[in-house]
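Minutes, project check-in
Item: structure for the 485-residue chain
Input as provided by the requester:
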Amino acid sequence: MTPVTPTVNVGAHTREQLLSPLAKNEQVRGAIDLIVNQLQMSANEITGTKPATQGGEQTLHAWLERAKAVRARGGYYPYIGSSRGRGALVELIDGSVKWDMINGIGVHMFGRGDAGVTRACLEAALADVVMEGNLQFNPDSVAFAELLITEASRTSALQHCFVTNSGCMANEAALKVCQQKRHGAPRVIAFSDCFMGRSVAMSQIGDEPGYRQGLTNNILVDYIPFYNPDMGERSTEMALWHLQECIRRYPGQHSCFVFELVQGEGGFNVAPREFFVALMQACKAANIPVWDDEVQTFGRTQSMFAFEALGLGEFIDVVSIGKISQACACLYTADMNPKPGLLSGTFSASVTSLHAGLSILTRLRDGGYYGDNGRIAKLHAAFRAKADDLVKRRGEFFPAVRKPFGRESKSVVGGVGGMMRLTPFGGEKDRIAKLLQNLFEDGVIAFMCGHGPYHLRFLPPIGVMTPADLNPVFEILEKSLQRSA
């Protein structure tokens, strides 16, 4: 394997070269400086949680009714933002302020009201178009892809990049690349409890029946059990046996094995490198492409790509990324390069998404976020310390977690990097759902993951959140646990 490194390495200094001539104008730059300064002054008024202002609840209710009318149903939370926030704090349209520990399910890496992201968007707004596509595009589309390839190719043979406008479409592109390489092989291998997105194809691969109600099932999926830490090496042996049985039963019929190196919606489940190596080696022996779905994990572990953190680059044929990158992408090796016409689309991404993405990725790459002693690792360690302390002090909220086949586990703190998990009430769905509503009322926005047991899911803005910010979050969490009990 010979990784390929592009000749252009996009960084903060070269992003300036991507700006339109107007964005480089001295007067325009002064105006942008003024806007960013005003933004920061406004954001600095937000210092912590607070309740709704007088009359705010009526304003929120009116907007929620309008949203319900156009969406045909209400949202999970009574949430409509005011378009103002600071870091991990977000202001709602009723004037209340809450700690945002889910961030659009992991999209807002640098939180709310970030000056760097805002500046990038203002500069991008001076371009000649709003959207770029696969037929006509500006230099920023190329630079965005080059940055991703530069990082990915350091430890893998990934060489090409298709930019698209959502993580789900990045996954669609990855599936198409794999199917074409395998001459239309009809079957896909995936992990139990996986989630791929909500297009017709991805809803069928994802292991959640509720997401494909009423859909025609025309993709054949073989599910392999994900790693079970309670079983250790035996879990790897079981998964490998299942995989080999699938390959034996349907020889030559699999287009790919799609790997979530950290399961997202499935429960922030993690596995050791050895588990993945055994399965990926079996795929290579059977000529089955290895597709790494990093739409949620991308940027959140101790390397920009989770496959690098686990030392799996040599096995990866295709990888899909999204969420924190703002624009999304499918990367693949030269051997997987599809024929003309397979990958295209009117929209690749908005100009603002591309510039914001470049700003975010260069800051993550150069800002000391990665590595064993990076900012992401330190924030996760702080989360675990706070969670362990809470569990030790308030054990009544954290009974043994009920697992399939009547098994129980006392492990209630989990995840990796910027993917953080806590399991109160034995993982009971209804009780955790009640806790989430109480958390929201008390000032923390979180979400759920897992398919039984269920867990509290946190995707904090790790670009700006500090260990000290976890103190008020856990104070509110303990209060909400008491209410929910």
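Outcome recorded: The chain has a mean pLDDT of 94.
No further action items on this chain.
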